[in-house]
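Table 4 source record.
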Amino acid sequence: MSSAEPSTILQVQDLKVYFPITRGALFQHHVGDIKAVDGISFDVYRGETLGLVGESGCGKSTTGRGVLQLYKPTGGDVIFKGQSLIKSRPNEIRKLRQSMQMIFQDPYSSLNPRMTVGSIIGEPLEVFNLLPKAQRRERIQELLKRVGLNPYFINRYPHEFSGGQRQRIGVARALAVEPEFIICDEPISALDVSIQAQIINLLEELQAEMGLTYLFIAHDLSVVRHISDRVAVMYLGKLCELTDRAALYDNPMHPYTKALLSAVPIPDPDTEEQRQRILLEGDIPSPANPPSGCRFRTRCYMATDRCTEEEPEWRNVGDGSRAHWVACHHV
């Protein structure tokens, strides 16, 4: 990917996804909101893999579903290939959805157990009416072969496959409509370590062959380092830091990013022994009642009074050739 002027395929602008909290058995009263995603902005460049990392419950998966309009955003905008998804009508979003697909986290629950593999992979072809019925079987077998499965498994059911094989079926389903952009929502977290590498290699091969763009959601920083071109770090509904892979891992700027990276084991025992761990105290605050000012201040070793009173600005502190976005008063 050229670093001079990359082409932007997706723009996320001040995206908010809130879930209402209601009380009352008969008459429901709106008493608050769970601010799962609370005003985040980033771009995704054509042909790249943008990694989105953070602790469980920070809003990563909700971000992915909000981008695809599987959850209706509360505010902000999502612009895909120059078209606003928020302002588009349902039939216009449906047409765009052929170019945007998702690989789900759990291969055990994301496949319908009552449908054959052929029906699961062929369903998107039927929904978008892409191929005559006579040619669909051939296309499904071709997709199975492409993800490393026997094309004659077409009449089998999901329960006959292992976790890794099921995730390959999920990948084949996402590829069926020939998308340009795929959101990978923790696609390997439910798999054995030995199988994880196979799925990552498959995704990289498919990206090289088909020119795909990925938003790769994960909490494993080692995996994200391997597959991503740029990495965004998320905490409690907000982005903390966003830059290219080398800059993030070699020179993290946000205290939360530093703490996350200090927990990643290093294979060299001498380096590991000399390294200082940053241990975060306390639990993640509730997204229904987030802290004032900086979201991370309740667990941050650098927090000051300013962090309590003032929300840090999302700003670019990188040089001209390399953007490095961060939200911290102390950077």
